[in-house]
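Summary of Year 1 activities. Much of the first year was spent building the evaluation harness for sequence design. The harness presents a backbone, in tokenized form, and records the residue chosen at every position. We chose the following record to illustrate the format because it has been used consistently in internal testing since the harness was completed.
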């Protein structure tokens, strides 16, 4: 498809904040492939310039309100997909005020810019951490939201900010609560590169990359079949397609502020993930059992029925081996991340 061909010179554009980050960069590509005009802002504190290609890019912080307003107006933005945030659970426990500043305060400034530039639609990158310790599983959107860490608390505060902003300013929004994002683009050289890395799959893959000699399993005395924690791993490409569908929906008439879970609905234990990585990499990947990590729920599994019904979302990459294989390809090609 020739991008923008049939839509005329003043085609409306999508601004992606945090578009140089892991899920943001995959979503930018997905939106481009669907023929959308896309503009990226990212302060590059955690993001990678190399992850953004062939779209206008601004190294701007979302707190720079005047610059954001100018970008929104210059590019005729009608919808913002908002990823920019601090997102480390552990760090948020140690420095909660950083999370209130980077997430809540910065988003308030961003939303003021949207209101001023008359942008009426926003897709927000939220998290399963808004639920806290599950009281039933799979978790539906009706489940109580009682976050157990400042990261989840600040994401929930932003969700509420968006609900009130719809009532007050008519700013429509779709909030997407991701479970465990994993994998990488199957064809293009983008993937997960965090510093520090805390997520299970990239940590496991550091063993065959000879960057660590074993994986530590954080507890095997949970009330789960093999004693290790169960998580719902969702391919980053499936998250990207959900954002594309959410943009389509939020542009429709009659949408207010909605929330959807994004997961596969199947839990894999830490031990199962390690075993699947052994099969994918052909490496023995030694593992040791350590203490539980503070704040880890035993089981986090999503019901994504609502996203399937309302967004028409259908995850395509829903087996664990595919998720790990795609991550493995990216890490083999980028053993030291993007720039090194
Ligand atoms: N784990 C290990 N060893 C490691 C790293 C992780 O055993 O070296 C375990 C964790 O204890 C957990 C599972 O692997 O049981 C997954 O851990 P991750 O850190 O990869 O992911 P989390 O489930 O902790 O975090 C994810 C998202 C967060 C979100 C959270 C919601 O990455 O953004 O779910 O609780 F906040």
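For this record, the design step produced the sequence shown next.
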């Amino acid at each position: 498809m020739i991008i923008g061909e049939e839509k005329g010179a003043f085609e409306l554009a999508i601004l992606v904040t945090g578009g140089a980050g892991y899920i943001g960069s995959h979503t930018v590509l997905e939106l481009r492939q669907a023929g959308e005009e896309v503009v990226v802002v990212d302060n590059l504190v955690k993001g990678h310039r190399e992850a953004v290609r062939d779209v206008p890019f601004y190294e701007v912080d979302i707190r720079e309100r005047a610059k954001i307003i100018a970008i929104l107006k210059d590019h005729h933005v009608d919808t913002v997909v908002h990823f920019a945030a601090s997102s480390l659970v552990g760090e948020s426990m140690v420095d909660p005020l950083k999370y209130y500043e980077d997430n809540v305060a910065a988003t308030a400034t961003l939303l003021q810019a949207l209101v001023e530039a008359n942008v009426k639609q926003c897709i927000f990158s939220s998290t399963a951490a808004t639920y806290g310790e599950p009281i039933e599983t799979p978790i539906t959107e009706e489940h109580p939201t009682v976050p157990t860490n400042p990261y989840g608390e600040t994401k929930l505060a932003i969700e509420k900010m968006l609900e009130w902003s719809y009532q007050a300013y008519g700013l429509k929004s779709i909030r997407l609560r991701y479970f465990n994002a994993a994998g990488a683009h199957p064809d293009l050289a983008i993937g997960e590169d965090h510093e520090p890395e805390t997520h299970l799959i990239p940590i496991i893959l550091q063993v065959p990359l000879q960057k660590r000699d074993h994986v530590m399993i954080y507890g095997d005395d949970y009330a789960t079949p093999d004693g290790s924690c169960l998580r719902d791993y969702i391919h980053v490409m499936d998250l990207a397609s959900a954002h594309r569908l959410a943009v389509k929906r939020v542009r429709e008439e009659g949408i207010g502020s909605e929330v959807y879970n994004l997961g596969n609905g199947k839990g894999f234990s830490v031990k199962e993930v390690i075993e699947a990585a052994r099969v994918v990499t052909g490496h023995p990947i030694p593992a040791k059992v350590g203490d539980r990590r503070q704040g880890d729920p035993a089981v986090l599994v999503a019901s994504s029925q609502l996203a399937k019904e309302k967004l028409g979302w259908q995850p395509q990459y829903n087996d664990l081996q595919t998720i790990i294989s795609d991550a493995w390809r990216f890490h083999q090609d980028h053993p030291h991340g993007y720039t090194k």
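Residues 1-8 have pLDDT under 50 and may be disordered. Quantitative recovery figures across the full test set are reported in Table 2.
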